[in-house]
Amino acid sequence: MNWLSTLVQDQMEGTKRLAALLDPDDLPVGRDWVRFIDALAASPVTDVFIGGSLLNRRQVKDVLHPLRARFQGRLTIFPGSPEQVTPGADSVLFLSLISGRNPDFLIGRHVESAMRIKQMGMEVVPTGYILVGDGPLSTAAYISQTTPIPLHKPQIVAATAVAGEMLGLKLTFLDAGSGAGQPVPVSAISAVRKSTSTPLIIGGGIQDAAGIHAAWHAGADLVVVGQAIEQRPQDLSWLPDPKNYQKIARQTG
């Protein structure tokens, strides 16, 4: 079963998932890198996303293969540019930045990379990517030269997600951006969840277990944590187990 099919099935069953977003430039090196992978493998993380808005020191391929050898979960490329798509992952998010109006990130980069990705033979997941936030300006917003949807406009977030679903995109990803001052509001998550049927991913600005639980409760099927993991790579004990959330939801439901 491919990655998207498992996510759709988990969505139907109410099973939540947790992803670590790994920016190759911000990861440990040497023995600390090996220890981090082992900590990740022992954590409740179900998925790993790999990519970054701008890579200077290390590339996706540099971290992908060591992860494949030691981490048993699904590996998905979350590319900041076409060059970051490399063989060896389970899937790649084919991102269309539908919150912005920059044609490069709506279709331009896709045309540049489509044939190369097709030849790799990996699963391609058409994804409606929506930036949400009031500032400070995130790296994703700066690089893409687009303006995020304001935090206090959940109706615009929902309308954008609905438009993406109508266009045939199979996944919705709401992102506050790396290092965001605030995560995606629960009001926006709830509005999208009520208006769309595609699996819903939430990322950016989530710093603790309470933030993960809040996103799950509001309707996220998969929550992505990046910077908070990078800041304490040897201690992942604070990450909540999606299985425990499932038990609590059944007891309180």
Jot down its keywords.
TIM Barrel, 8-stranded parallel barrel, alpha/beta, 253 residues
Brief synopsis:
The chain has 253 residues and is of the alpha/beta class. It contains 10 helices and 8 strands. It has one domain (3-252): TIM Barrel (Alpha-Beta Barrel), CATH 3.20.20.
Descriptive notes:
The longest helix has 18 residues. Helix content is 43%, strand content 17%. The radius of gyration is 17 Å and the shape is globular. It has one domain: TIM Barrel, CATH 3.20.20.390.
The helix/strand series, from N terminus to C terminus, equals HEHEHEEHEHHEHEHEHH
What does the main sheet amount to?
8 strands, parallel, barrel
CATH class: Alpha Beta
| Regions with little confidence, pLDDT below 50 for 5+ residues | none
Mean of residue pLDDT values: 94
Any idea what the radius of gyration is? 17 Å
> Strand order, biggest sheet?
1-2-3-4-5-6-7-8
Number of domains: 1
The dominant shape is: globular
State the helix count. Answer: 10
- Quick one: how many beta strands? 8
Q: Structural class of the helix and strand makeup? A: alpha/beta
Going by CATH, the homologous superfamily would be: FMN-linked oxidoreductases
CATH architecture: Alpha-Beta Barrel
Strand content: 15-25%
Helix content: 40-55%
CATH topology: TIM Barrel
Query: How far is the first residue's CA from the last residue's CA?
Result: 29 Å
